Amino acid sequence: MGTNIGKYIPSRHKNCGVSSGSSPGAEQSKQDCVANEALEIINIKLIESGEKERLMELLRERLVECGWKDEMKSLCRAFIKKKGRNNVTVDDLVHVITPKGRGSIPDSVKAELLQRIRTFLVSSAI
């Protein structure tokens, strides 16, 4: 049988705190709330099934294969060399490298992961 989705939605999200008013802002807030609830349910299903860990492993493999990981290491090393080893914190590295890292993930990797997620959603009837 189907899963009782209501049990996955924390009580603070049940009504999303949005009144039934007709203002455009309230309607957008309600849509955002429904989207957030759906993402929360999907995340729970991915975790419960073990698919999230498999997707994470696939992502790690693809990023190594395409040289992304080595590129990020190189960027980190260059930043540390420029600033000096004693003048760089992990937070500094994260702040500088994260936008570059996210922006440089190959489209083919993103597409493959998205396809795997879509296949999971269809097979799970979510």
From TrEMBL:
Chief localisation class: nucleus
Alphabetized UniProt keyword annotations: Activator, Chromatin regulator, mRNA transport, Nucleus, Protein transport, Transcription, Transcription regulation, Translocation, Transport
Listed name of the protein: Transcription and mRNA export factor ENY2
Keyword Transcription regulation: yes
UniProt-annotated location(s): Nucleus, Nucleoplasm
Family: Belongs to the ENY2 family.
Function: Involved in mRNA export coupled transcription activation by association with both the TREX-2 and the SAGA complexes. The transcription regulatory histone acetylation (HAT) complex SAGA is a multiprotein complex that activates transcription by remodeling chromatin and mediating histone acetylation and deubiquitination. Within the SAGA complex, participates to a subcomplex that specifically deubiquitinates histones. The SAGA complex is recruited to specific gene promoters by activators, where it is required for transcription.
GO biological process assignments: chromatin organization; mRNA export from nucleus; protein transport; transcription elongation by RNA polymerase II
Molecular function terms, GO-annotated: transcription coactivator activity
Organism, as annotated: Nepenthes gracilis (Slender pitcher plant)
Subunit description: Component of the nuclear pore complex (NPC)-associated TREX-2 complex (transcription and export complex 2). Component of the SAGA transcription coactivator-HAT complex. Within the SAGA complex, participates to a subcomplex of SAGA called the DUB module (deubiquitination module).
GO cellular component: DUBm complex; nuclear pore; nucleoplasm; SAGA complex; transcription export complex 2
Claim: Nuclease is one of the keywords in the record: no
Highest taxon in the source lineage: Eukaryota
